[in-house]
Design a protein that fits this description.
The structure is a single chain. With 107 residues, the chain is mostly helical. The protein is 91% helix and 0% strand. It has one domain. The longest helix is centred in the first third of the chain and has 37 residues. Helix 1 packs across helix 2, helix 2 runs antiparallel to helix 3 and helix 3 packs across helix 4. The chain starts with a helix and ends with a helix.
Length: 107
C-alpha cells in the first residue's frame, strides 16, 4: 500500500517537473526570438522570460484543470493572453510591442 502512495507521489511530482521544463523551454524560445527581433537588453530579456514562463506554466495548469470543458478552458486562456499582452507592453514598451506584432503577422 505504501508503495502505491510513493509511486503516486513520484508520478505527480514528475508531471509537475516535466510541465515546468516545457514551460521554461517554450518561454526561452519565444524570449530569444523576441530579443533577436526587437534587440532587447539583457535586463528586458530576463523580464520577458519570466513573464513568458509564467504564461506557459499557467496555460498548462488551465489545460489540466479544464480538460473536459473547452469553453471554460478557452475563456481562461484568453484571460492569460490578455494579461500577457499588458505585462509585455509594460515591460518593453508599446513601440516594441507594435514591432513584435508586425513581425508575427508577417511570419
Amino acid at each position: 500500500m505504501i508503495k502505491k502512495y510513493i509511486l503516486s507521489f513520484v508520478l505527480v511530482f514528475s508531471a509537475a517537473v516535466f510541465a515546468q521544463d516545457i514551460a521554461a523551454e517554450r518561454a526561452a524560445e519565444i524570449t530569444n526570438e523576441m530579443a533577436r527581433v526587437l534587440s532587447l537588453s539583457e535586463e528586458d530579456k530576463a523580464k520577458v522570460y519570466k513573464i513568458q514562463r509564467n504564461r506557459f506554466q499557467t496555460a498548462i495548469e488551465i489545460r489540466t484543470k479544464y480538460a473536459d470543458d473547452a469553453d471554460a478552458r478557452k475563456a481562461a486562456l484568453r484571460k492569460v493572453y490578455d494579461k500577457l499582452h499588458g505585462k509585455l507592453k509594460g515591460t518593453i514598451g508599446s513601440d516594441k510591442m507594435k514591432a513584435w506584432g508586425d513581425y508575427k503577422r508577417n511570419y
